[in-house]
């Protein structure tokens, strides 16, 4: 069983410095058993980062999302109507508690008494520390992982990204590179039930990230990845700016570079078609 002190030591060994701003994607399952659980891993981060540092995590969820936008949407119209009726209106004052897609570590950050959370019905972030409020305040509804998003604010601060027992498929910062590279598929939309109970159309839906793993070997070759262990979890630390720069170079060469290869992936199949014909205007399928 790992202790908070051991996790803090591992974070320091990986090169996390006091005063850093870091976006962490962590799997507690990969770290192994920690005395006190995910909350103690959060405390280990705060201990290493100190008063001037900031810990941020994605807290994405689908509570208010349109069931038609799922990877596998309902097949019949009647099922869709029923599922849509069951979606509650977005309540910005009641952070969704489940089902979170991001795991127990993110949940432990979100529930921390000093945490701030950005107000977005689906693609929100939680942060603790010196920049927490600034990173999460006044975020845009459209292009939620683009310019003016918490990701962009981390970029402005020259922040770090940590993958702890997770793969680049969760390396959310790459979505910011998709926006800045202006790939054709980034302008697609998704739908959320708003506070009024009406469905809102959000432009700039980030969608599938299963192909992001293709960046890893390039980052390693370029010595952008600092690798080590947090508990039992193979982990990587990297400069967010360097990841975004590499991802943009890949996307500007070939717009489909970071799409997944799953033939059944409706998002990447469509995205591939769009990048092949960038001059054809695209009408969102509702
Ligand atoms: Zn895909």
Structure commentary:
The protein is an alpha+beta fold and 286 residues long. The chain has one domain (4-276). Helix content is 33%, strand content 16%. The protein has eleven helices and nine strands. It has helices at 4-13, 28-31, 38-49, 77-86, 104-110, 132-136, 150-156, 173-180, 216-221, 240-253, 266-276; strands at residues 21-26, 54-58, 116-117, 125-129, 160-164, 189-193, 199-203, 226-230, 233-239. Strands 3-4-2-1-5-9-8 form a seven-stranded mixed beta sheet. Strand 6 and strand 7 form a beta hairpin. The model has no long low-confidence stretch (mean pLDDT 93). Bound molecules: zinc ion (ZN). Residues 208, 210-211, 259-260, 262, 265, 267-268 line the site of zinc ion. Zinc ion is lined by residues 208, 210-211, 259-260, 262, 265, 267-268.
Explain briefly what this protein structure is.
By secondary structure, this protein is an alpha+beta fold.
């Amino acid at each position: 069983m790992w202790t908070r002190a051991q996790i803090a030591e591992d974070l320091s060994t990986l090169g996390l410095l006091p005063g850093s701003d870091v976006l962490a994607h962590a799997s507690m399952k990969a770290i192994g058993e920690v005395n006190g659980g995910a909350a103690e891993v959060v405390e280990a981060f705060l201990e290493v980062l100190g008063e001037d540092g900031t810990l941020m995590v994605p807290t994405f969820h689908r509570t208010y999302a349109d069931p038609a936008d799922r990877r596998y949407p309902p097949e019949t119209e009647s099922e869709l109507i029923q599922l849509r009726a069951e979606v509650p209106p977005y309540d910005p004052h009641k952070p969704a508690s489940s089902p979170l897609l991001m795991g127990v570590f993110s949940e432990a950050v979100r529930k921390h008494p000093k945490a701030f959370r950005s107000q977005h019905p689906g693609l929100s972030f939680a942060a603790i520390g010196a920049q927490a409020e600034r990173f999460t305040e006044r975020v845009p509804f459209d292009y939620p992982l683009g310019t003016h998003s918490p990701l962009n604010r981390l970029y402005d601060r020259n922040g770090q990204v940590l993958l702890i027992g997770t793969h680049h498929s969760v390396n959310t910062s790459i979505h910011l590179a998709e926006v800045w590279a202006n790939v054709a598929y980034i302008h697609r939309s998704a739908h959320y039930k708003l506070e009024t109970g009406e469905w809102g159309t959000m432009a700039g839906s980030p969608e599938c990230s299963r192909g992001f793993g293709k960046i890893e070997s390039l980052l390693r070759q370029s010595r952008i990845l600092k690798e080590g262990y947090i508990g039992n979890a193979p982990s990587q630390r990297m400069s967010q700016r360097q990841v975004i720069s590499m991802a943009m170079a890949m996307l500007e060469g070939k717009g489909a570079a970071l799409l997944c290869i799953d033939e059944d992936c409706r998002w990447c199949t469509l995205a591939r078609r769009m990048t092949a014909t960038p001059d054809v205007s695209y009408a969102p399928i509702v």
